Amino acid sequence: MRFKILNLVSIFLTATLIGCGEVQPERLTVGEIKCSHCSMNIVDMRFHTQLITYKGKRYHFDAIECMDQFQKEKNLEIQNIWVSNYLNPKEFLTKDKAIIIHSKKIRSPMGAGLAAFKTHEDSAQFQ
C-alpha cells in the first residue's frame, strides 16, 4: 500500500514540475495558423506576435497592432507577450524588452507600420 501511495505522489510531483518550466514562444510554419484577432493567415513571420495568459491559453497574431487591439478588447491576465525580431524573424523578443517602432518604411500586414527590433541601432535605418 505504501508503495502505491509513493508512486502516486512521485507521479504527481513529476507532472507538477514538468508544468512549471519557463514558457517559450512557439515556432510556426508560414500559413499554419490564423491571427486570433483578424483571422488572416500568418505569413510574414517578421510581424508574428504571441500572447500567453496565466491560464496557459496561447494566442497568435499576424501583426503587433492586432495583438494590441485584441488585448484592449479582452480582459486577459497576461503572462507574457513575444514579438518577432523584424531583422531576424526566427528570434522572439519579449515585448517589454523589444524596441517597437512605428515607421512608414515598414509595411506590416495590417498597415500600421509597427515592427520590433532588438536594439535601437537595429531600428535606426527604419526611423
TrEMBL record:
Domain of life according to the entry: Bacteria
Name used for this protein in its record: Accessory protein NosL
Pfam families: NosL
PROSITE patterns, sorted: PROKAR_LIPOPROTEIN
